[in-house]
Amino acid sequence: MVRKKLEKAASMLVCESTLTITSVADKCGYSSGANFSKSFKQYFGVSPSQVRNPVNAENSKIGKIHSKYGKEFDPRKLYSQLITNVVVFNPEKLEEMLMNVKIKEMAEKNIVYLTAPKGYELDAIFKTWDKITEWGRALGIADVEKKRFAICHDNPMITPTAQCRYDATIEIDKNHGVDISAPYQLSVIPGGKYAVAYYKGDGDKVSNFYMELYSGWLPGSGFEPDDYPPVAHYLNDSRADGFVEMEVYIKVKALP
Fold first, then answer.
1. Concatenated DSSP letters for the chain?
2. How far apart are alpha carbons 222 and 219 in whole angstroms?
3. Fewest CB atoms within 10 Å of the CB: 85, 115, 121, 252?
4. Residue-wise pLDDT tens digits, 134-171
5. How big is the CA angle at 128 (ends 125 and 133), to the nearest 5 degrees?
């Protein structure tokens, strides 16, 4: 799918800064850098080089992403506020959060998941969590609130909200003996090396925190993203508390 290829390319341009634009084009299945740049600009309304150097870029309303999905694309939002000087977090607090990212080995987790029907639309996400939590309680899954992980497949800075995929998941024992049927699905969160970051703050800044990890912390970490979406381990009920507390897990591998 062309949209998915271009979204992957946009993420690689930001998060894998050692790759040339031509290399990004090749990794995303384009026959030449010229074809890639043309397709990229038609969709996003800006060129790959403007994503790499977004200082003078502006919100784009001329690409297909706007005409088809109504989404403005601003490449500056893909970068850390430490680079763009657009203040979202207290700078000292942000530096502290990024300094406290830890690399941990995580064992494989067996999960049951339910996909939110409207992407990252907040009410739909809450209803999805209510549904899978009630399902888990009915089956007697112990400590279900402590075993909640969200798999966030898409970046809302790049992907239109309704096209994003969000899986609400509950960890279950390997030998669970639970009868799982649609709309619930059985899967695993793969084991391996993860960068783990702690976040406590406003819910509407969670996407910004993800971008800080990918564009602010990752490039200088000695690691690159492995082929798995970020995972959020929720530690509280944000509706009751008025804030989000969670751990973000990003699967990584050492740079070659």
1. -HHHHHHHHHHHHHH-TTS-HHHHHHHTT-S-HHHHHHHHHHHHSS-HHHHHS-TT---B-SSHHHHHH---B-GGGGS-HHHH---SS-HHHHHHHHHT-EEEEE--EEEEEEE-TTTT-HHHHHHHHHHHHHHHHHTT-TTGGGGEEEEE-S-TTTS-GGG--EEEEEE--TT------TT-EEEEEPPEEEEEEEEEE-GGGHHHHHHIIIIIIGGGTTEEE-SS--EEEE-S-HHHHSSEEEEEEEEEEE--
2. 7
3. 85
4. 999 988 887 888 889 999 999 999 999 889 999 999 99
5. 125
Domain spans of the chain, in order of start: 2-78, 103-254
Alpha carbon distance 166, 214 (integer Å): 18
Taking the alpha carbons of 7, 8, 11, 12 in that order, is the dihedral positive or negative? negative
Return the CATH superfamily for domain 2-78: Homeodomain-like (1.10.10.60)
Whole-structure pTM over 0.85, yes or no?
Answer: yes
Residue count of the chain, please give it: 256
Q: What is the tens place of the pLDDT at every residue in 37-96?
A: 999 999 999 999 999 988 766 666 778 999 999 988 888 888 888 777 788 999 899 999
Q: Looking at the domain covering 103-254, what would its CATH class be?
A: alpha beta
